[in-house]
Structure formats: C-alpha cells, structure tokens
Write a structure and sequence with these properties.
The protein is an alpha+beta fold and 61 residues long. The chain has a single domain, classed as 2-Layer Sandwich (Macrophage Migration Inhibitory Factor). The chain is built from one helix and four strands, in the order E-H-E-E-E. The strands form two sheets. It has a two-stranded parallel ribbon with strand order 1-2.
Length: 61
C-alpha cells in the first residue's frame, strides 16, 4: 500500500487539494502499478508562521 505525504504551506483551496490528491493518486497508480484504492495521500499544511527560509519566516515577508 503506497503512502504519499505532501507538505505545503497553507492557503490552497479545497478544489486545489482535491485535484492534487487525484493527480498524485493517478501518478502512483501509473508508475507503481498499485490499485487506486490502496493509495493513501496525506496533506500536511504548514502555517506560514512555522516555515522559514534564510532565517525569515514566510509570515514575515
């Protein structure tokens, strides 16, 4: 059973997340020859307060 974890900053719409899950599932089915019903996708949304690059939080930019 393939598990896929996607970490991304908050702010996407429900429609965008739905499309992302559908396309990631399709890619795993195609490349790993796994049945779609066995593909598990986790979306972990990170607060912009909890993500920084170069010493600066995204919420401060």
């Amino acid at each position: 059973m393939p598990y896929v974890t996607i970490k991304m900053l908050e702010g996407r719409t429900e429609e965008q997340k739905k499309a992302l899950v559908e396309k990631v599932t399709a890619a795993v089915v195609e490349t790993a020859n796994a049945p779609a019903e066995n593909v598990v996708v986790f979306i972990e949304e990170m607060s912009k307060n909890h993500y920084a690059v170069g010493g600066k939080r995204f919420s401060d930019q």
